[in-house]
């Protein structure tokens, strides 16, 4: 085995070539044929197969073959969409950050987890995912969450020499470890192969979709049965009756719905990723769209997480440090530089983060706040580094402090509330100064020291709390972390979009309030709460939090969880950020758990639904925008598709109402041609509609996919108009051809009239595709160029229409022929009729809404 110095990059590259990347073997892919088979044997497909079989039995081979073609075309299409969606999801997973710290060439370097090889030495600290099977070389208070391997959720303590398995999480302590097995050789790989068959539980969206599918399918079958009986009653041959009922069933079944929804979600996820928001499951796209409350932390999300220590207060007075970023140069003034330097050195000793020169620029390596302590020590003393501690008690959000032992000294730094109480004596001015600094928006850190008496043996194994007592306060350090420049605008946008934003932070209430004021988050009166003082009763808590601009400070992970629950019980859909080891439960409990891609822990990322690649608050709002847009797209193509169903069903209704005396305007095969021929591409293109400018100007709505608005629009406005033109055209052509008698066997005339009706429906849908682009404005107010796909889809739709009419064999199969010129002219009216109806509906609704707004 290699020593703790790690490998050289040349060795590592060589080993990587031999062993392959440190990745779990992708589970044996289900064969394409198997998946395709699945697409042809689900519920709808089985229904259609039955119909085909019955058609054969009833001696209608043409119909049977046509239905089979439909099943196959539909299945292939669904398969392609699913593949695209899965491909997109896999690509997103590849974007998740996966860097680890490894010793290479004698230096600590960031290495992608997939590039680790056996013999690498990695540095692990609390919150990290163990990147491969490793043996711990050093371990300080290490505990590992192995629940993903064993199901046991209590962390397992580990000491030097113990093994830790890849895929588990270090939830406490820190240490160095040598990689013992990678990729397919890890223990997790063996188990993953076993469990890959486990199906994840259904999400709300898939449940809702299943509900829609079940309801529509049941409706289709029910109506079909009624028609079958009705046609028998009016004296039809059972064979004809059967034909009609199949038509009704096929017309009503939304064959293309599910795969189109999946694909829309995948495209929404891709758009989010291009704006730095990474969803870890597709359904989160939909949940984001209905988010109503954002609980965000402060550091890094609202602020830049570029810490700069600007003030040090000691017994000798206050000094001010003016320097740029993490560069060592600075201008120092004030009294007590010597004592301040002492405090700074102590703070650096208790810190692991460092400032480093990288490509001519000084950057934070590790925690930015700790890097700022390093810089401060440099600026005040000129020293580049200090002694290496023999023992550390790393930062823990529950203790809110950390310490380290060097020689006989214990150095501690942390939140003043937790450090001052363990100090021997705290002079009055210190508390006053603390308030002054916090009120200026500075993050204040208290630094203390204790000379440990006795033999090292007694305190080398003691717990932190035993040692951190009777300390000597060295000083207060004030750090500046400026707000992100655009965060004020984003908060305004969020407000316009009806979202409520609360700051949930571990920082001091005065610091948090000052920053909240600077970015325009708080209103008047201000609501600044403290975690420990939150009301016990969940209902009271919910009522207190349910307003815009609340600040909750000094919050613990458990309190975060309570906040999420309290808001949810008031009907909110909550997005909650988190970065720490203990934030997992709150992130999982929230509807949308949000983790950071840059800072933050692997543990938090694992529990999150959304990962912000840039840690920026604005990315949450952008993701919500994309989520809403995606939801709107699903609505768009549902509206489009269902309108067609009305036009398809109407001929059957008229036929039944006339007691079978009025001929059918559309046959079963024409309906299938509409559903999977002309309709498919525009529906897809509507699913790709870019977000409207106004997506974030409306309040959030938690809506069912099939809500009242959609039902009114489809079944009372667009559908009836399209059907009316269809039937008018059909009757006009019949009348023009001299059709008078009931069941007149003038087949050519019927076919021409049917062709005209078909044309009217396709042209009506063509206009409908554009009408569905917006729920509020008529299509001519939208740019053409913003959805090119739709223009192409509509052109394809027209081409398919042409083929269905003028390719003699295809037209004959569908049971239609090219309509006469006057029929064609009349059919052309379908497009303007649909647009006109849509425009009137939208104007009336717009006016109604405005008067309602004014009366409020
Ligand atoms: P935030 O919500 O601002 O990210 P945290 O929960 O990270 O707050 O930190 C809470 C408090 O703990 C901070 O205000 C600070 O006083 C203290 N703290 C944070 N990080 C460290 C650290 N590395 N060392 C010592 N104290 C820390
Ligand atoms: Mg933090």
TrEMBL record:
Cellular-component GO terms for this entry: plasma membrane
First-listed, main subcellular location of the protein, grouped into a coarse class: membrane
SMART domains linked to this entry: Cation_ATPase_N (SM00831)
Pfam families in the record: Cation_ATPase_C (PF00689), Cation_ATPase_N (PF00690), E1-E2_ATPase (PF00122), Hydrolase (PF00702)
Transmembrane segments: 36-57, 63-80, 215-236, 242-266, 710-735, 747-768, 789-811, 823-840
Stored InterPro entries: ATPase_P-typ_cation-transptr_C (IPR006068), ATPase_P-typ_cation-transptr_N (IPR004014), ATPase_P-typ_cyto_dom_N (IPR023299), ATPase_P-typ_P_site (IPR018303), ATPase_P-typ_TM_dom_sf (IPR023298), ATPase_P-typ_transduc_dom_A_sf (IPR008250), ATPase_P-type_domA (IPR059000), Cation_transp_ATPase_P-type (IPR050510)
Superkingdom, taxonomy of origin: Bacteria
Catalysed conversion reaction: ATP + H2O = ADP + phosphate + H(+)
NCBIfam families (UniProt xref): ATPase_P-type
Designated name of the protein: Calcium-translocating P-type ATPase
Source organism of the structure: Pseudarthrobacter niigatensis
């Amino acid at each position: 085995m290699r020593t703790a110095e790690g490998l050289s990059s040349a060795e590592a590259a060589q080993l990587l070539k031999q062993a392959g990347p440190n990745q779990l073997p992708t589970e044996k892919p289900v064969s394409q044929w198997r998946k395709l088979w699945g697409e042809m044997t689900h519920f709808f497909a089985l229904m259609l197969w039955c119909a085909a079989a019955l058609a054969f039995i009833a001696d209608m081979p043409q119909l049977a073959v046509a239905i089979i073609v439909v099943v196959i075309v539909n299945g292939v299409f669904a398969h392609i969409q699913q593949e695209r969606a899965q491909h997109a999801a896999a690509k997103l997973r590849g974007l998740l950050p996966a860097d680890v710290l490894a010793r290479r060439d004698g230096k600590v370097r960031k290495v992608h987890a997939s590039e680790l090889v056996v013999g690498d030495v990695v540095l692990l600290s609390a919150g990290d995912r163990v990147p491969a099977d490793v043996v711990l070389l050093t371990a300080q208070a290490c505990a590992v969450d192995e629940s993903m391997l064993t199901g046991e959720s209590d962390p397992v303590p580990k000491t030097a020499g113990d093994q830790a398995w890849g895929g588990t999480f270090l939830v406490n302590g820190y240490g160095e470890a040598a990689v013992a097995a990678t990729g397919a050789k890890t223990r997790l790989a063996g188990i993953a192969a076993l469990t890959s068959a486990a199906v994840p539980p259904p999400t709300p969206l898939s449940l809702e979709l299943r509900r829609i599918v079940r309801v529509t399918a049941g409706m289709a079958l029910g109506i079909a049965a009624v028609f079958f009986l009705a046609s028998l009653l009016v004296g039809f041959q059972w064979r004809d009756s059967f034909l009609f009922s199949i038509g009704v069933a096929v017309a009503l079944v939304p064959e293309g719905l599910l795969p189109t929804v999946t694909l829309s979600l995948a495209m929404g996820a891709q758009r989010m990723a291009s704006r730095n928001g990474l969803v870890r499951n597709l359904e989160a796209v939909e949940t984001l769209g209905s988010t109503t409350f954002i609980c965000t932390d402060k550091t890094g999300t609202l602020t830049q997480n570029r810490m700069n220590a600007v003030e040090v207060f000691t017994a000798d007075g206050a000094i001010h440090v003016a320097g740029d970023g993490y560069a060592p140069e600075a201008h120092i003034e004030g009294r007590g530089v010597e004592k301040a330097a002492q405090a700074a050195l102590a703070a650096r000793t208790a810190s692991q983060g460092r400032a480093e020169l990288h490509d001519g620029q000084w950057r934070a390596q590790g925690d930015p706040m700790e890097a700022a302590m390093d810089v401060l020590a440099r600026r005040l003393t000129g020293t580049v580094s200090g002694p290496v501690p023999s023992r550390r008690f790393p930062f823990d959000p529950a203790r809110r402090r950390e310490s380290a032992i060097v020689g006989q000294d214990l150095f501690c730094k942390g939140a003043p509330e937790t450090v001052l109480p363990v100090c021997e004596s705290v002079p009055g001015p210190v508390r006053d100064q603390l308030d002054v600094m916090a009120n200026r928006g500075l993050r204040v850190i208290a630094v203390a020291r204790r000379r440990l008496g006795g033999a090292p043996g007694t305190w080398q194994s003691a717990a932190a709390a035993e040692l951190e007592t009777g300390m000597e306060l060295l000083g207060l350090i004030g750090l500046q972390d400026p707000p992100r420049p655009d965060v004020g605008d984003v908060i305004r946008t969020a407000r316009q979009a009806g979202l409520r934003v609360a700051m949930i932070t571990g920082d001091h209430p005065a610091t948090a309030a000052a920053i909240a004021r600077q970015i325009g988050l708080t209103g008047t009166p201000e609501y600044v709460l403290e975690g420990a003082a939150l009301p016990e009763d969940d209902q009271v808590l919910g009522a207190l939090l349910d307003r815009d601009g609340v600040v909750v400070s000094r919050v613990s992970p458990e309190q975060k969880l309570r906040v999420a629950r309290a808001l949810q019980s008031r009907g909110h859909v909550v997005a909650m950020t988190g970065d720490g080891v203990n934030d997992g439960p709150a992130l999982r409990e929230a509807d949308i758990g949000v983790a950071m891609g840059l800072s933050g822990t692997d543990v938090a990322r694992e529990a999150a639904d959304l990962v912000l690649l840039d840690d920026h608050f604005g990315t949450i709002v952008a993701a919500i925008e994309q989520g809403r847009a995606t939801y709107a797209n699903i609505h768009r193509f549902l509206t489009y598709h269902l309108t067609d169903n009305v036009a398809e069903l109407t001929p059957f209704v008229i036929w039944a109402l006339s007691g079978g005396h009025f001929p059918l305007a559309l046959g079963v095969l024409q309906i299938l041609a509409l559903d999977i021929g002309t309709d498919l591409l525009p529906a897809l293109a509507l699913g790709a509609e870019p977000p409207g400018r106004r997506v974030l100007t409306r309040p959030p709505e938690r809506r069912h996919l099939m809500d009242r608005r959609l039902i009114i629009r489809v079944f009372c406005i667009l559908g009836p108009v399209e059907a009316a033109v269809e039937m008018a055209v059909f009757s006009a052509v019949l009348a023009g051809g001299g059709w008078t008698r009931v069941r007149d066997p003038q087949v050519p005339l019927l076919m021409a009239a049917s062709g005209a009706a078909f044309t009217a429906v396709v042209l009506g849908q063509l206009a409908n595709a554009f009408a569905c682009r917006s729920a509020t404005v008529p299509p001519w107010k939208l740019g053409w160029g913003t959805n090119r796909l739709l223009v192409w889809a509509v052109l394809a739709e027209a081409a398919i229409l042409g083929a269905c009419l003028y390719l003699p064999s295809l037209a004959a199969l569908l049971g239609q022929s090219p309509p006469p010129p006057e029929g064609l002219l009349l059919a052309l009216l379908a497009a303007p009729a649909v647009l006109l109806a849509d425009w009137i509906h939208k104007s009336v609704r717009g006016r109604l809404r405005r008067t309602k707004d004014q009366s409020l």
